[in-house]
């Protein structure tokens, strides 16, 4: 969640920047979707990932890692052609600052010998297994990215326990690196994210079920990031009340409600004096 005006402006600047790909859900394999939560983009070395340009339907898993090193050291390592490893994101523990290094549609190399690298998004969290106290800022940023990615790529917001399916095409969800199967379908020898990672707290943030992960609250002023339909009820099959343009301001009145793979907010669009439900992904703070 953007916690201050600077974050919001940075977010808008990212959306407006050329060459970072299109904003919003794409049904094709040709466009990179730019995540609204990453604070910067630093490309991993091209020899450390595969340029697969996948469609959303092929991305089934989020894999949670811990760096075993510093934030900047990890970012540097993924830029080093000798490393042969990468993840899509690296997140700093002190403040939740996030670097994206591989497009989500491409395959970062973090998922072991099975097909998990191809069918997943990897997130590195700065720290050491079993030792690090992960900060609220890190959990919140990671949860924002994960929640957004689940909505964007149709990944279930669930955490299967135990070892994950041998074939990554079966099922989907949010798992730790230690749950990724080896070629014999048993556990690998990684232990991250380890005992100090609070899965219950993290999954509450991802799902918003404890309220702490909600992007908006009643009374927040919002504006669309693109021409945005507002509807009589939550759901893309509901009648359109109006199409709101970027710059128009609304006030959050109700929600959120999860329906049809989207999170919906009831908004009073002030200039038009109309009420309707709009999709969270295309709303930012006004
Ligand atoms: Zn790992």
Automatic annotation (TrEMBL):
Its EC number is 3.5.1.28. SUPFAM superfamilies: N-acetylmuramoyl-L-alanine amidase-like. Pfam families: Amidase_2. InterPro entries: Amidase/PGRP_sf (IPR036505), Amidase_domain (IPR002502), NAMLAA_amidase_2 (IPR051206), TAT_signal (IPR006311), TAT_signal_bac_arc (IPR019546). The keyword Hydrolase applies. Residues 49-194 form the N-acetylmuramoyl-L-alanine amidase domain. One of its GO terms (biological process) is cell wall organization. This is N-acetylmuramoyl-L-alanine amidase. It comes from Haladaptatus paucihalophilus DX253.
């Amino acid at each position: 969640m953007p916690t201050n005006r600077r974050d919001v402006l940075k977010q808008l600047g990212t959306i407006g920047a050329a060459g970072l790909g299109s904003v919003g859900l794409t049904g094709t394999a040709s466009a990179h979707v730019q995540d609204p939560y990453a604070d910067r983009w630093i490309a991993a070395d091209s020899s450390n990932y595969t340029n697969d340009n996948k469609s959303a339907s092929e991305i089934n898993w989020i894999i949670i890692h811990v760096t075993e090193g510093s934030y900047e050291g990890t970012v540097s390592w993924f830029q080093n052609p000798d490393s042969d490893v990468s993840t899509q994101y690296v997140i700093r523990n002190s403040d939740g600052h996030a670097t994206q290094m591989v497009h989500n549609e491409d395959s970062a190399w973090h998922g072991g010998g099975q097909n998990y690298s191809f069918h997943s998004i990897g997130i590195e969290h700065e720290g050491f297994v079993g030792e690090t106290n992960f900060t609220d800022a890190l959990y919140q940023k990671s949860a924002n990215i994960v929640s957004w990615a689940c909505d964007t790529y149709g990944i279930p917001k669930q955490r299967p326990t135990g070892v994950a399916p041998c074939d990554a095409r079966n099922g989907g969800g949010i798992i730790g690196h230690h749950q990724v199967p080896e070629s014999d379908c048993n556990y690998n020898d990684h232990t991250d994210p380890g005992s100090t990672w609070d899965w219950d707290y993290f999954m509450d943030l991802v799902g918003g079920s404890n309220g702490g992960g909600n992007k908006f609250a009643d009374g927040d002023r919002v504006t669309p990031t693109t021409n945005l339909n507002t509807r009589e009820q939550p759901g893309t099959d509901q009648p359109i009340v109006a199409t709101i343009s970027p710059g128009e301001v609304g006030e959050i009145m109700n929600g959120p409600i999860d329906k049809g793979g989207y999170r919906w907010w009831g908004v009073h669009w002030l200039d038009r004096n109309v009420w309707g439900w709009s999709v969270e992904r295309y709303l930012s703070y006004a």
